[in-house]
Specification:
This protein is mainly beta. The chain starts with 6 loop residues before the first strand and ends with a helix. The strands form two sheets. It has a three-stranded antiparallel sheet, with no helix packed on it. Strands 1-2 form a two-stranded antiparallel sheet. The chain contains one helix and five strands, in the order βββββα.
């Protein structure tokens, strides 16, 4: 893994683990279904299981 950027391990809504570079995240929003959090990126939206509080505890927003 490249050490550039701020990386955080998250779990996609289908259970797949991802390493996300938060320098590529445009916005962090509640997902429409209310069960997940949505990471908005230029490549598309990623629904994740972690809530916004978890993300804020690990990165500076």
């Amino acid at each position: 893994m490249n050490n550039q950027g701020l990386w955080l391990k998250v779990t996609r809504s289908d259970g797949v683990n991802l390493l996300v570079n938060f320098e590529q995240v445009v916005a962090i929003l509640p997902h429409e279904d209310g069960q997940f959090t949505k990471l908005v990126t230029a490549a598309g939206d990623i629904p994740i299981k972690e809530n916004i509080d978890y993300i804020q505890a690990h990165i500076s927003i």
